[in-house]
Amino acid sequence: MTAKCAVNRTGPVISPKQQLDQDVLADTLKKEIKARKRDAQLERPGRRPGPLRQLWSYGKIIFNSLYFNVLTNWDTVLDSIFEPVYWLVDNLTRWFGVVFVCMVIALTTSVVLIVYLCVLPLIVRTYPAHWILWHLCYGHWNLVNIVFHYYKAITTSPGRSPQEKTDIPTVTICKKCIVPKPARTHHCSICNTCVLKMDHHCPWLNNCVGHFNHRYFFFFCLYMTMGCIYCSISAKDMFLEAYYAIESYYQTPPPNFTSEEKIFHKSLLYLWVLTSSVAVALGSLTIWHAVLITRGETSVERHINRKERKRLKQIGKVFRNPYHHGRINNWKMLFGVERTSHWITRVLLPSSHPPHGDGLTWGCPPYRQDTMDTI
């Protein structure tokens, strides 16, 4: 019996499966060779991808860095998008701070000149002696407090976070300064530094409001509001007379007012409108800061505490502000009142005494310590 088999005269026998594997391997090698040739052509001098392809690749890298980061959220994305706007606002605020300070000085000086040249002479001529004495005493006391506290607010440093390594306890690391931040310290993008107990950056002071000048800022707002209210109330009757006189300028025939009388009328009109407007605007700001001081918060901490209060409420806990020492004690700590006489020497009269504490460490009230440890 003869066996039938296929014999390859030129080599060994190859099965169909082996032949298929060889074909697949050959195709793979051909593709790899083509890819290497394409890469080699791109690497040649003068053969770079076009600008649109480069822009597209760069955009994909940016998008992936935002999208695939586990720490990324919508706040980070929006901050990245609006970063040019923040940069523009910060630089404009920094450069226009000097202009705002000059405006405050110019407007305050104009009001003081009108009071000395127009209002006070009229008061001296028409008011009784006791009212004249009251206006002189109260007006000059208010003016001295305004000038003193504004000067101290713009020239006193709010307090900077230590740039070198210290033993002071810190709560976090500033992602911009790359230095440890003590409690209640926040970074000011306009001043480009970390400020102790930062409240906000005030363009009208061209300075941050922080631990060492918070009292000066609040007293300036308070005394300026009181001064504006005093001027608007004292000059109300004079303003009405000046307003009716200016309205009569357009009668036929016009009244025979001299140029000095017309300047007098317009000055009183300017005085009353300016002081009344500032009293409303600045008075609202002063009340707002008074509420924050009563709560033991700053403007920055108010937003942080509100978010923390909502977060703890969702898990069945109650938030307690660790820096709230009681309403009266919060005011005493801000004003630096340690004795009863300090309400006169440090509150009613100008004083340059330092604030309570160093702004680096903050102690919790004893009755809140255990509560804060549990939260």
From TrEMBL:
Reaction(s) this enzyme catalyzes, per UniProt: L-cysteinyl-[protein] + hexadecanoyl-CoA = S-hexadecanoyl-L-cysteinyl-[protein] + CoA
PROSITE patterns attached to this UniProt entry: DHHC
InterPro entries (alphabetical): Palmitoyltrfase_DHHC, PFA4/ZDH16/20/ERF2-like
Transmembrane segments: 94-119, 131-151, 216-233, 269-291
Enzyme Commission number, as recorded: 2.3.1.225
Subcellular location: Membrane
Protein's UniProt keywords contain Membrane: yes
Main location (coarse class): membrane
Record-level GO cellular component terms: membrane
Name of the protein in question: Palmitoyltransferase
Source species: Hemibagrus wyckioides
Lineage, top ranks: Eukaryota, Metazoa, Chordata, Craniata, Vertebrata
